[in-house]
Amino acid sequence: MSSLHFEILAHDTQGFARRTRIQLPHGTVETPVFMPVGTQATVKSLTPADLQEDIEASIILSNTYHLMLRPGADVIQTMGGLHRFMGWNRPILTDSGGFQVWSLGALRKIEEDGVRFRSHIDGSSWFLGPKESMQIQQQLGSDIVMAFDECTPYPATYEQARESMQMSMRWAAQCREHLPVNDKQALFGIVQGGMYADLRRESLHAIAQMDVEGIAIGGLSVGEPKEEMLATLDALAPHLPHNKPRYVMGVGTPDDLIEGIDRGIDMFDCVMPSRNARNGTLFTDHGKINIKNLKHQTDDAPIMEGCSCYTCQHFSRAYLRHLYIAKELLSARLNTLHNLHYYTHLMQRARAALEAHRWAAFRDEFLQTYRQGSH
Amino acid sequence: MSSLHFEILAHDTQGFARRTRIQLPHGTVETPVFMPVGTQATVKSLTPADLQEDIEASIILSNTYHLMLRPGADVIQTMGGLHRFMGWNRPILTDSGGFQVWSLGALRKIEEDGVRFRSHIDGSSWFLGPKESMQIQQQLGSDIVMAFDECTPYPATYEQARESMQMSMRWAAQCREHLPVNDKQALFGIVQGGMYADLRRESLHAIAQMDVEGIAIGGLSVGEPKEEMLATLDALAPHLPHNKPRYVMGVGTPDDLIEGIDRGIDMFDCVMPSRNARNGTLFTDHGKINIKNLKHQTDDAPIMEGCSCYTCQHFSRAYLRHLYIAKELLSARLNTLHNLHYYTHLMQRARAALEAHRWAAFRDEFLQTYRQGSH
């Protein structure tokens, strides 16, 4: 019996956008959904209560690479798994560790079974491949396990992208072997292929053949122009299986999310709202604001009029500017609360628009307002 | 009409300890009380909601020196005062700025009207004396204003301590002139005199003669042995006016607070619980624990069994150790929540013991358990 139950609740009649529901062992996820990133078993500065009650996150992402190094998968398993360890009882998606091995690990050496690398923390030697990634993600006990893959760098030649994609496809099949369908954890395969439409479709075809519970699109938001990212999604959209959740990894800005939904994507994650928050960049419907700007020194307005987050309900831009300038810990927290609330509530609005069959109007109005404010 | 109404609700029949109630413009403070320190218009890492709902703080302290430099008293006044600026609607006590001028300001030059100094932030030149301190604290709009004084350094010769104390007494009188009795802000005078009992009593006599709403004892916890601090409180205890709140500034450890209550003190503040929290040192009835210790790696216990704080209700020592080791922002927050909750709830327990006429038993039992655990 599968650990994932999937329903399509509404569908835009003119395009690919859809409103779905994913049931997982730790709860239900309404999509389109944004998943806050909890890299080291914590969404930076926030508690599970903040995430549930204020941000209303239904699922979060955590990182296998970081957790395997610190505190270690054995420690988390001993403590009863990741949900119990971090006090979060809703669904968790864990990535495979691959992306961080490529971006953070030192002295990488690719072998057919995986990658040998050194920890960015202490230089210790590690090996991670499909088998190890599946084992560690089982120890963590996440609801959704991501296949171990290579995130093809940008730019890449056709030949590089093809070889990388084919290796990822071999690894994906091995992941399914090491983690057969079960009632505790779902496995998502990852489409690669760089910026080459035919490789992407070849990869999608391979993943769709495997008995995975969800389809992820990886290797985007890796430095390519936005047009290339959207062109890749355009190339895949007509071919995505309907009966499975679709997830674009590491994307993106608020307008990227809307563009992604428009191309049939259900799930998103990105460090942008939380990382930008810590740098004083805050999201609104009218684009981003930089809280450290002198013009906010005695600005009595909230970050965004009408926002229902704790930060906007209680604090002025003037106070948030003061906290940022004074390097106060509360700055990161209040800013992160707002940005993640903004993202999850943008997804709520997208779901409402899809249910009300007014997706195109919502999309156009949002993109126009947001992009006007951004320029 | 005074801004402070004071009642004694219970008194230890054998000693000086007492249970009182202080009514201030922004609310009621039940004593003995511990005031969390919100240096830069924020108790580091915490929101007003945390302070009210979890920590149950009835009053907090904020620092004139820090606020006058950043964001500036004018900014806070423009934003409607400190309560509104930081979103805290219960009482606030502000210190005079004097202590930080001595400890942080550079190139200090004492003049009869105050002190000229350079900002520790940007080297800009400032002047702070009784008149300026009263004006700034009025702009901030705190419920309790502290007199501007010199915190006599330790050690000091008798002559140094006497001259410093006499200057502070002249300044205290000027503070009252600049801030006459009114219905918005109460003024507390500060007893100085170093470690010399006769100077302390002379200073107390001078302050008691002034029409101030509360009596503070300054110049303690400045590096002296604990015995000297307690001897100073012992020398003052029989002479403290009964009809006013008494506040020992900058004190201290949990056992210091119990010893202070035993010597007739009603109010305390200290950065220790919040600063120690950020350094991974956590308070329990059995002494302090260091969360980074390897023995907590898979320790499923909360910081303190039976503690009702959010941290202890939801997280293990193992998780708190992980957050600390991984340098996560949530570490400071969860640790601070616990330590401040521990302090304010220790004061709740002291109040209950005083009301139940079992102060001596509570004191002895607490001190024995706490000090056994600390060795």
Overall helicity of chain A: 40-55%
**How much β-strand is present in the residues of chain A?**
15-25%
The greatest inter-chain interface is formed by: A-B, 37 and 37 residues
Give the neighbour order of strands across the main sheet of chain A: 4-14-13-12-11-10-6-5
Q: Output the number of helix runs of chain A.
A: 15
What separation lies between the terminal Cα atoms of chain A?
50 Å
Provide a concise account of the structure shown.
The structure is a homodimer of 375-residue chains. The first copy, chain A, is α/β, with parallel strands linked by helices and 375 residues long.
Characterization of this structure:
2 copies of one chain form a homodimer. Chain A contains 15 helices and 16 strands. The first copy, chain A, is of the alpha/beta class and 375 residues long. In chain A, the strands form 4 sheets. In chain A, strands 4-14-13-12-11-10-6-5 form an 8-stranded parallel β-sheet. A 3-stranded antiparallel β-sheet of chain A has the order 1-2-3. Chains A and B meet through helix 13 and helix 14 of A and helix 13 and helix 14 of B.
